[in-house]
Amino acid sequence: VNPKLPYFLADNLLSFHLNDIGSFHMSVNAYDRYFLTVECALCSLPFAGDCGVGNASLSVALDCFVTSHCLCCAAQAIILGFQHYFVVLGTSVLIPTILVPQMGGDNDEKVRVIQTLLFVAGINTLLQTLFGTCLPAIIGGSYAFIVPTLTIIYSDKLQAIEDNHVRFLHTMRAIQGALIASSSVQIVLGFSGLWGILSRFLSPLSAAPLITMVALGLYELGFPGVGKCVEIGIPQLIALVIVSQYLKNVKAGKIQIFERFSVLITVAIIWFYAYLLTVGGAYRHSPSLTQIHCRTDRSGLVQAAPWLRIPYPLQWGSPTFDAAHTFGMMSSVLVSLIESTGGFFAVSRFASATPPPPFVLSRGIGWQGIGILIDGMFGTVNGSTVSIENAGLLGLTRVGSRRVAQIAAGFMIFFSLFGKFGAIFASVPGPIVAALFCVLFAKVVACGISFFQFVNMNHSRSMFIVGYSIFLGLSVPQYFNEFARSAGHGPVHTDSHWFNDILFVIFTSSATVAFIVAVFLDNTLHVREAKKDRGMPWWSKFRTWKGDNRNEEFYSLPFNLNKFFPPI
Q1: Which end of the chain is more exposed for a tag (fewer CB within 10 A), N or C?
Q2: Which residues face 280 on adjacent strands?
Q3: Helix 146-153, helix 497-507: angle, nearest 10
Q4: What pLDDT band is residue 524 in, cutting at 50, 70 and 90?
Q5: Nearest-CA neighbor of 401 among 554, 262, 562?
Q6: What is the spatial distance between Cα 62 and Cα 155, in angstroms, rounded to a whole number?
Q7: 132 near 558, Cβ under 8 Å?
Q8: How many CB atoms lie within 10 A of CB 60?
Q9: Are strands 384-386 and 139-141 parallel, antiparallel or unpaired?
Q10: Whole-prediction pTM value?
Q11: Cα separation of 521 and 68, whole Å?
Q12: Comparing 165 with 419, which gets the higher pLDDT?
């Protein structure tokens, strides 16, 4: 960090609006551009118009910022951070809602798990933004861990326990042990640099299907969830599209308020509308399942949440370790690693950063492994990955500030401690959250498609690799899921449950299947002749620290730690 620039500015600002200050690029240094990014991204106030300078010195710029816009930028950053917190709530509530009842837990245990998951997500987000990739990525729960977790839940040993509370505790401890042991996979691959070496085989041609399928593979969380209560889900979907797209240029003062805060504005309106339907008796005679999805008073979270509770390591007791559970969980750790790689590329593009160099990806994966270790220590019933919905929110708001992500982490930690307040926001009906997913995942899908601009898509080789990897990324998981629904187990059914889980988890992840197919074909099919067609001339300059001088702006560690952990 430049000693002339306060850390809260230099560390802060990656934004879609970097290109909006093109006339200044020749007259100010990299750290001035960070400042200008704050102006454009958070205050929507043009630098020259307010300070009256073109070739301004850093001191003049900072003086203008401090005297005129600190409150403006701080207020917007806090609201944007809360918006990210609200978006990550969807996954943080859904995963424990699926798993905890099957573990034998009731609403009290479910609330405690949700609080713990949010608390740890806040810690992991801070670690990732400070010491990992340093991108404004929110770290949340992962659906990839559900299958091996269910295998642990329904193991004969645990199902034999009759008391539900005792079974919940023993199951939680078994899941903790599996997470703690399997986290070593990401820790070793990340901090050893092995994942950085492997990621050098990525090109724009193979990265595009990965990023696309990271979001497209979650399509079941979109409109199928909206359809569970169409009278609130569809209005939320329509309102979000209108506010975020058709009204995006409407300003309140100098702030594009509808573009920046479209999620909070529309959710507040539709949530109040759902409340009116609830108190008005619209669902009084509806089936119980409809009431669960549509009513605003059926989550049970507010009543069960404590006013104050501090999650702590080993709060459920000492973890238990089982080799079969660990091997099964390792498959989820590998899938999480691949999906997070796609998430990091999406976040970097939405934040107008350079594609993360291999060693930065490796560093981020190492810290994510630390995050999964923390998950296991605290007992979240789930591992960690980059939140794809929050990556989409970066694209929707066009603000990619690292500081906003850290403020969101602060909200996660705060509301996980003061459970009553957090439970109020967590009780939003599921169809409203599903409508948000429809828009936010679509943004990430489009981000992946945008990588095709660096590829020669007129070449038959490129067309085949892209089409084949995306099609199999959708078709293979569909086959595995349909087989499991009809037969009660996956296509691979041996006596080794951990082996079954490894194959089932890998081949039900759309991003992982697309990644494997695209990388294999891209590195074996007429590679020498297709170097330019793959987009490698554009991609190669970002592979090393010195390859592009912007890498230092985006990926330097704070507190001058690069001296002790030099980039490669």
Answers
A1: C
A2: none
A3: 150
A4: very high
A5: 554
A6: 60
A7: no
A8: 14
A9: antiparallel
A10: 0.85
A11: 54
A12: 165
